[in-house]
Amino acid sequence: MKKLLIPFLVLFLLMPFGIAMAQPAQKLISVVISPDHSNWEYKIKQEAKFTVQVFKSQVLLDNVTVDYELGPEAFPSVKKQNVVLKDGKTELKASLKEPGFLRCRVVAKVDGKEYEGLATVAYEAEKIRPTTPDPKDFDLFWSNSIDEARKTPLDPTMVLVPEKCTSSLNVYHVSFQNDMRGSRVYGMLSVPVKPGKYPAVLLVPGAGIRPYGGSNMGEDIISLEIGIHGIPVNLPQELYYSLATGALRNYNGINKNDRDNHYYKRVYLGCVRAVDFIYSLPEFDGATVGVTGGSQGGALSIITAGLDSRIKFLAALYPALSDFAGYLNNRAGGWPHYYKNAKPQPNEVETLSYFDVVNFASRVKALGWYSWGYNDVVCPPTSMHAAYNVIKAPKDLHLYLETGHWTFPEQNSARISWIRNQCKK
Fold first, then answer.
1. 154 burial class (0-12, 13-18, 19+ CB within 10 angstroms)?
2. Is residue 376 annotated as part of the catalytic site, yes or no?
């Protein structure tokens, strides 16, 4: 039994990109970094002061040894090692000369273990703009791709899953064709039992390969939760682990220098076909459809809204896939950090510009709710603001400053409440 559990635990750890990541557990040693501005925002060239404190049992730890980095996000300009804090406290200072994010990272070393603290402050983040180019034929490429995909009939299947059903919702394992015959999108569909016409929410997934159990957005809302890999979402966990470490390992990099065959082309088209499927449901009200997700799912939420004008609202948590070219311009780029440690292949920058969230963001017309924190190292805030700042549609950004690639329960509750309110309009 232990041998079987280990792979599944590894799989769980390989998938930190879900919508509602849990708040990290409290550790024995706390490294607390406090900026001197309560809103964590500064003007260009203004000095930021970080108070660093290391606690054990809520008491400052004497003579603690720390390493620290200070400077632009992902490009620290100051690195110090084995600095002894006699009373467990110190102050660090720095500034930025251009719009972006300044990060202070401190690692305390206690009894052979390391404990990290982060604080990332904004320097006129509203002025950050994308570095990824916007192809002249971007709209033509995607409109032609969608038209071509729609030549394939949906051919939907729906299988009731009794053990998932409730007194108010019927739950189905569903599939429909995507961009060619035999290429299918799979998901879990929840439909209100009571006869009527209902709004719908499309739930798009974070990165990884996993099963899905469906989502209950409310007893008067249709919910469609999809996978993106063209495989059923109700199979044994062991299969997904095998795919994650085998055929679909690093799927986000497959054919990344070929726009017609890049892995995400089928994924993005599948999100549009999912909206097509929702519109085919007799229970759908024919007008009210939104999309939501976190990380890769946050990206897919923006992308779907950018591709499909039928989307009326979207809620995106810490969107990935934003401003890939940042690293080529001495700036943090978005997950999956294609250029962080490698030079681009021929045609790669040009190809990925057709798949970068920033170029979909500028085309979004739907009302948007967005949320993230400044301490995210998976989806750097620089990359997320590059996308957010070019959105022209009505939008609200809900910052939970100290969060990384995770959400507070209150943050996720606010997202769900907002979505439900949009469905009532």
1. middle
2. yes
